[in-house]
Amino acid sequence: MGEIKLPRHMFLWSMSVIYMFAFASLYVQIPGLYGNEGILPARWQMRYLGKSLLEQLKDSPTLLWLGPQLALDTQQGMELICLLGATLAFGAVVLEPLRSSLVFFSLWVLYRSVYQVGQVFLYFQWDSLLLEAGFLAILVAPLNLLWQSPAKHHDATTFWLVRWLLFRLMFASGVVKLTSRCPTWWGLTALTYHYETQCIPSPLAWYAHQLPVWFQKLSIVGTFIIEIPVPFLFFAPIRRLRIFAFYVQVLLQVLIILTGNYNFFNLLTIILCFSLLDDDHVNFWLRRGKKTKEKSGYQAAISWTAFIIELGVYGLFFYWTALYFGMEINWEKKSVFSKTEFTYHQFNSFLKMVTFPSIWLGMLSLAWEVVTAMYKCACIQGFFWKLWATVQWAIFATAAAGMFAISLVPYTYIEYDSHGNLWPELHKAYSAVDRYHLVGSYGLFRRMTGVGGRPEVVIEGSIDKNTWTEIEFMYKPGNVSGPQPIVAPHQPRLDWQMWFAALGPHTQSPWFPSLAYRLLQGKKDVINLIQVDESQYPFRQQPPTFIRALLYKYWFTDAQENGWFSQQWWRRRYVEEFFPTVHLGDPFLDGLLTQYGLKDKGLTRRNSDATVPWLLRLVREHIHTMSGPLVLWSLFSAGATICLLKTLFSLTPKESKSVPSKPNSGKPKETAPPSSKKDHVQKKEEVLSPGHKEEEKVQDLDNNPK
């Protein structure tokens, strides 16, 4: 791996953008989700038991304990944290000196604070991934205090941790699809259900669903190859293999982005892929590549050997794919036949065989980075600077080794025997820091849901209990003729939980009775989660007297029925009642609220007239009518525009300092003060053409008395 200054810069800038998206997306949803009259009020998570501040922070590490000192309740404290996080992240986007370890530490602490009280609406794998990647950004970023610090020799060591996180994420995501024994993954039919059963499909998901079955199966084979064997190339000693791994990983994430709305998760995964790049490849993108030099015989031999090894690796990939997935080309039907040619026990044996070697591979790769950084420190001139660089190297090498060690515990969750054979001290170290979410376990799309049709909960309201009106959400499927939205990078967390709620009975979603209760009360903050535009909410004049929820099965319409540009996106069928008809004061509803601890607990605190609460209310008044995607893209557009203008101004050539000649007014000209010989030569070189410069150099040599 060559120098990593540019990929590291790209990683830190992109992490600032992701933090900005995450904080802004959560901010617009706080009143409805966690407000005093929201679905799950966050103030119920803050139990003031008379303990000291340090004890409270130890029991529940969140900055919300400081809210009362600023005359803020829990909701306002969350809003302040999200506003501070979004503002600080925006500043890091537009100002490079703010992309420092102190700023990223602040962002991590702020997001960790809201995650502590986020409950079910923040318990997603990408929230854990953001916390882990954000903590690694603290180690990767420079320590800028009053000036911008230069690159350090240990940067490659800490940046390697990002590559290890990417490996764990992708490899585990591929493995769990097969260890779950899901018949759709083993039968290579998962994508025939995925596009219509994912949480919030994109407009292209309907078209992807119409692709032939053989292509869907081939796509799953490609997914398995990209997620299981390709991640081992992240640590390959041949640079071009790592570049190849980068492009195939990005390709997978881009295809997911095009067909589904997964907020900032896929963008964050692409950002982790930057750890596979180096300055030379980024300069290749920027058309600033170095001039190729003639290679010596030894270098040419190494280059050809590496090229042959690359061809061998690609050949093995094709051979294993054809062998283990029974690939056959049908030239008559112009299709590719594929099926899994291995059993669960064979795959489990393979997993046992590679889990510990993958750990040793990671240890060797990290050791190489550590030794390389140590060698660079030893080459520094001057005893003091060499000592200072060595001290920094020792600190960050120890930190990298510690992060790698504790990450082995969640990584080995994919294989039971390997997890049990880890050194017991690693389990103790992991347990000590688990509450801070420094490392996590991952495994996406473990089982495919909605095989018999996409389950969807439809909420209906009524005034007289005879005429029922469907309450349509902004983002999740409901109206069969409604177009699919583009939501990412915003995550409508209520819509996501509605998708999970449809997978089981309402008793598995304790928050749902609270949603029905708030809709019966007509709470605007909760209604704002469903429809920002009040004209689209059917009960804007009067809250419904009765609420019920029905379970439907949804399917994408077929292209043969309606054409490729159909206005009918869905077809649906009623299944059963999901939540019975309830009203305010209903014993059944009151019993559920009491059982789940969701009953209103006393009066809420009056709004304070202090400066900070007043400013928070002022900001909320200007934001509450804007949708989440609009807020996020407005922030990103402003930040990207500022960065673009800064880049354009930095590329603008400096204006000439010469003063234009004035017409002769009859007055004697003032002579300029004599300039130094160096300035005279520099100005002369700016005027002369390249050919004249060479002639001038020759004349200077001839006139030189020496």
Task: Give a description of the structure.
The chain has 706 residues and is α+β, with helices and mostly antiparallel strands. Strand 1 (328-330) and strand 2 (335-337) form a beta hairpin. The protein starts with a helix and ends with a helix. Helix content is 55%, strand content 6%. The strands form two sheets. The protein has a four-stranded antiparallel beta sheet with strand order 4-3-5-6. Strands 1-2 form a two-stranded antiparallel ribbon.
Gist?
The chain has 706 residues and is an alpha+beta fold. The chain is built from 28 helices and 6 strands.
Rg from Cα: 30 Å
Helix content: 55-70%
Spans of at least 5 consecutive residues with low confidence: 655-706
Instruction: Tell me the span between the first and last alpha carbons.
Output: 48 Å
Mean pLDDT: 87
Structural class: alpha+beta
How many helices? The count is 28
Shape: globular
Could you tell me the number of beta strands?
Answer: 6
Largest sheet: 4 strands, antiparallel
Per DSSP, what share of the residues sits in E-state strands of 2 or more residues?
5-15%
Strand order of the largest sheet: 4-3-5-6
Key structural traits:
endoplasmic reticulum; 28 helices; LMF1/2_N; 706 residues; four-stranded antiparallel beta sheet; disordered C terminus; Lipase maturation factor
Write the layout of secondary structure elements.
Elements: H1 5-27, H2 30-34, H3 53-59, H4 74-94, H5 101-116, H6 125-140, H7 155-179, H8 183-186, H9 191-197, H10 203-209, H11 213-227, H12 239-259, H13 265-273, H14 279-285, H15 297-324, E1 328-330, E2 335-337, H16 344-378, H17 383-411, H18 416-420, H19 424-433, E3 454-462, E4 468-471, H20 493-501, H21 512-521, H22 524-530, E5 546-556, H23 559-562, E6 570-582, H24 587-595, H25 611-623, H26 628-651, H27 677-687, H28 690-703
Antiparallel strand pairs: 1-2, 3-4, 3-5, 5-6
Helix pairs in contact: 1-4, 1-6, 1-13, 1-26, 4-5, 4-26, 5-6, 6-7, 7-11, 7-16, 7-17, 9-10, 12-13, 16-17, 17-19
